């Protein structure tokens, strides 16, 4: 069984979406495996033509074996790329590593040079206010606007000594607008990069 067969067995049925193969883990959890690197224009433009306050995330499939995550981390260490956010979801044979880095263009060059398949997507990164109700207030704001969150994780950096949360939503532009109206500060890639 080759690597792609393993992916099919792990993630179930797939459908061809051009050069991106889409997998369904559960009905509400689409996962995309990039078969060829795609360059995403940065900064992302909104419908109004203004740069959106978005941050680029990479997703990498790793074999689920001891040391693979460390190998990836050391690769970035050797190329002086700082990992600002990290999330790992494992399955029996593979793991999906989602990461935010301080230099996404350089990270893409590393992936291309090492011929590592990856995908990238935009995230919203938001500062949370101090206190126990910050996250609940943020989630309430998004719920009231009926904005679905697909996944979220905290970043390893802190802006202005505040917790920082990254999330992927169904409508980034609307989510950023709702958060701004509710007094939250969203951060873009330039706010996180060195």
Give me the secondary-structure topology.
Layout: H1 3-11, E1 14-17, E2 20-26, E3 29-34, E4 54-63, H2 68-78, E5 83-90, E6 94-101, H3 104-113, E7 118-127, H4 134-144, E8 149-154, E9 164-169, H5 172-181, E10 186-187, H6 189-192
Antiparallel strand pairs: 1-2, 2-3, 4-6, 4-7, 5-6, 7-9, 7-10, 8-9
| Low-confidence runs of at least 5 consecutive residues | 1-51
Q: Name the assembly state.
A: single chain
How much β-strand is present in the residues? 25-35%
CATH class of the domain at 123-192: Alpha Beta
Helix/sheet category = alpha+beta
Tally of helical runs: 6
The average pLDDT value, as a whole number, equals: 78
Order of helices and strands: HEEEEHEEHEHEEHEH
CATH domain fold name of the domain at 123-192? Alpha-Beta Plaits
Rg measurement, Å:
17 Å
Classify the helix fraction into a percent range. Answer: 25-40%
CATH homologous superfamily label of the domain at 123-192: ACT domain
Summarize the biggest pleated sheet: 7 strands, antiparallel
Distance from first to last alpha carbon: 43 Å
